[in-house]
Amino acid sequence: MTSHLFAICFNATRPADLARFWSGVLGWESADGPDDGVAILPPDAAGFRIRFLPSREPKTGRNRAHFDLTSTSPEDQRRTVARALELGGRHIDVGQLPEEGHVVLADPDGNEFCVIEADNKFLAGTGSIGALACDGTQEVGYFWSEALRWPLVWDQDRETAIQSPDGGTKITWGGPPVAPKTGANRLSFELALPTGADRAAEIGRLVSLGATRTDTGEGDGGRVLMLDPDGNEFAVRKPR
Question: Where is the VOC domain (predicted)?
């Protein structure tokens, strides 16, 4: 059986503080259960949760992935920005132009994210997190489409995007040039399998698609740690 996207994980210097920030920005509730650790839950049970994993590694350079938050109106965009600033976020400059409609911010741990203008058609109907926008190749977009069995909803000029058949957040890859990877990513995917599924078989399927296992064995909580074709870390949880 194919694994599903269980969580987007943040490596965080202060997991509980970062969870409170994102819970406040998104209006998501905290997870309740020992298997979740520090996490917040989406309003839709079909969506992914966000987990915050402890890390002592300092942030160096721009993240390879960031959230694009949606807006229903200019007033809603302003409210989201104001709420993020009140909770400890800040404005940052990543080279955006003054005429561009999105607002670029960083959370209290320095992770970049954007609050997108209300008339963005590509993110229409996706929910509060319109996209996880990633720096990556066309090939890695194809890999994740096959890995998650999510169809491609964009494949042009070596840029790709996928979305669950049930809708919701899109995952996008911007194509070349892709900046060199330096150190472990601060955002990563965590996959999960249905109860009773054969994890070894699923790991074999992911390897056949182009993933590799790391040589670190199982991580915290029995998570098998892997790399996608672009060298991005991800994990596969034990079936419950």
Answer: 125-239
Q: Which residues contact 133 (CB under 8 A, 6 or more apart)?
A: 65, 66, 67, 68, 114, 172, 174
DSSP H or E segment with residue 66: strand 65-69
Statement: residue 27 has pLDDT above 80: yes
pTM above 0.85, yes or no: yes
185 inside domain: no
List the helix and strand counts (H, then E) for the chain. 4, 16
Q: Is residue 179 part of a domain?
A: no
Q: Which residues contact 101 (CB under 8 A, 6 or more apart)?
A: 116, 117, 119, 120
pLDDT band at 183 (very low <50, low <70, confident <90, very high): confident
Distance between CA 86 and CA 187 in Å, rounded?
Answer: 23
Residues spanned by the domain of 13: 4-173
* d(C-alpha 109, C-alpha 58), whole Å: 9
- Mean pLDDT to the nearest integer, 208-229: 83
Phi, psi of 25 (to 5 degrees): -70, -45
Tell me the CA distances in angstroms from 215 to 207, 218, 225, one per residue in order.
14, 9, 8
pLDDT confidence of residue 170: 98
Can the peptide bond before residue 177 be classed as cis, meaning omega within 30 degrees of 0? yes
Say if residues 134 and 171 touch (Cβ distance below 8 Å): yes
Identity of the amino acid at 194: P
CATH of the domain at 115: 3.10.180.10
What is the number of structural domains in the chain? 1
Round to whole Å and give the CA distance between 40 and 63. 21
